[in-house]
Each structure stands twice: as C-alpha cells, then as structure tokens.
Amino acid sequence: MILTADSGSTKCHWALVEGEGASDNPKIIETRGINPVTCSPEQVKEIIAEGLLPHIQSSQVEEVHFYGAGCIANAPATLELQRTLQDIFSEAKTVVVATDMLGAAHALCGHDKGIVCILGTGSNSAFYDGEQLTKNVPPLGYILGDEGGGANLGKTFVSDALKGLMPKEIVDLMYDECQTSYAQIIESVYRKPNANRYLASFVPFMARHRDRAEIRSCIDRAFDNFIERNLLQYPNVEQMPINFVGSIAAVFEQELTEALSRHSLTLGKIERSPIGGMVKYHTTL
C-alpha cells in the first residue's frame, strides 16, 4: 500500500492506495494538520494515532510520501518528522518528507517542467524542472508578500472599505453579511492571533459580490501583484504553462486566467487540492 499526504498547519489529507488499479479511487482520510515546525514528535504520533491509524493497517504500508507546509529540505524539523513517520510505519521501505511546493509540482506537472503556484490563505511559486524545484521567489508571508493569496485579497478589500474607497452600500453589506464592524476588524487584525486567517475570511464575501467593479478591482490588483512580483521573475516564464493549486485559484479561475492573459502568460492546470495528482505521480512511476 502507498500512503500519500498533503498537509497544512490546520488539516492534513491522507490518500491510501491499496493494490494496482486503485489510484483513481484512493481512500481519503482527513486528520489535524502536521507542521514539523510547530508539532513535536509526540503531537505527530497523537494526531496519526487518533485520526489515521483507526482507518488503515499500518503494517501493510510500503511507501509513505508526506508533503507539507514547513517541510524544508534537510531542516532538522523535517528530518525529525521523517524519523517519526518511519517509527510509526516501521514496515515501510520508503518514507519521504518534502515541501508542499514539491508536492504541488508532482501533482500538477508530473515529470514535465513548468511554473507551479499555490494560492490558498497565502501564496507561493516555484520553477520545476521536471524533477526538482530549482528556483523560488520567497513568499514572505501576508505582511511582506503572499500576493494573490486569501489574506492578501482580504487585506486589499478591507483596507479599501475602511479607508472610504468603497461605496457605502458595499461597506454596509460587508458589515452585515460578515457580522462584523469597524472596531471588530481592527481588534481582530491587530490584537488577536491568526490575523492572516481572519483577513482571508472576507474572501467568500468578495467571491459572492465579484460583479461589483470595486471588488473586482481588488481581485485584479492582487493577482497582478502576484504576477508582477513573483511570476515575472522566472526566466522564460512566457514560454511555460503556469499551474495553480489551492482554493483561491479554484474560486477565482476566470479572474486569474484574465490576469495571466494581461501579462502574456499561459494558464496550465488549476486544481483545488493536489492530493489526487500526488497519488497518480507515485502510482504511475
């Protein structure tokens, strides 16, 4: 059996392939997220024991391919996670832990070269040569970067709304539908934890009202910034497909496609989740 994982800090999706011909219909199990930077080996074992092991026979797992946020190549935390997974799946001949960007590349490009992007709460991009990631523009997080990600979209919209750059009717509608206020927004952004996730929580409102020119302008600016500050730094980017994974890319596919066209770039694939592509990559080698 082959076990593949796509993990963020909040949740992790595990795909189990049992036998030949099962790659098109893997068993998907969701657990709490595992980030080696913030999770100790004991926490990793607890998460897997509670959420995963009741659904599989660990002794029959022959390969483990774990892709996740915070899994930096050769970093001590990454190597520690690899040892922990090897302890849990002691019969596995292969246990690999790699960054979520490489997982996205395997899922979207397979063995072909291309640009791979993640657009979720944050954003990231890299050039993939068909085997490895060879160039990466640092994402820098939602304060200094993460252009085009959910937090960045929300920040752009909320900033315009609170500075009076949005019509009053849109601002009032935001307060009503998002059940918030000026004071609550300031409190949540500057005094509470996880401001990036809070800002990203305005994205569903933006998606529902994307037909309003002012909101569409926020979306276009965020994607243009992502392209200009990230994608255009890759050599010969105009000659390669630009591939995306993540909820933001899936929700705003039309807007993203048009933004790429404005910069003479070509859209490749868009997938909400990379787990299906990851499974195919590791079962069709």
The top-level CATH class of the largest domain is Alpha Beta
Query: Would you report the number of β strands?
Result: 10
Provide the domain count: 3
Largest sheet: 5 strands, mixed
Termini separation: 15 Å
Q: CATH homologous superfamily of the largest domain? A: ATPase, nucleotide binding domain
Look up the CATH topology of the largest domain.
Nucleotidyltransferase, domain 5
User: Beta-sheet strand percentage?
Assistant: 15-25%
Mean pLDDT, nearest integer? 92
What order do the helices and strands follow? Answer: EEEHEHEHEEEHHHHHHHEHHEH
Give me the secondary-structure topology:
Elements: E1 2-7, E2 11-17, E3 27-32, H1 41-51, E4 63-68, H2 76-88, E5 94-99, H3 100-109, E6 114-119, E7 123-128, E8 133-135, H4 141-144, H5 150-162, H6 168-177, H7 182-190, H8 195-200, H9 203-208, H10 213-229, E9 241-245, H11 247-251, H12 253-262, E10 266-271, H13 275-283
Parallel strand pairs: 1-4, 4-5, 6-9, 9-10
Antiparallel strand pairs: 1-2, 2-3, 6-7, 7-8
Give a written overview of the molecule.
The protein is of the alpha/beta class. The chain folds into three domains: 2-108 and 275-283, ATPase, nucleotide binding domain (Nucleotidyltransferase, domain 5), CATH 3.30.420; 113-142 and 221-271, 2-Layer Sandwich (Nucleotidyltransferase, domain 5); 150-209, Transcription Termination Factor Rho, Rna-binding Domain, Chain A, Domain 1 (Orthogonal Bundle). 43% of the residues lie in helices and 20% in strands. The chain is built from 13 helices and ten strands. A hairpin with a 4-residue loop joins strand 7 and strand 8 (133-135).
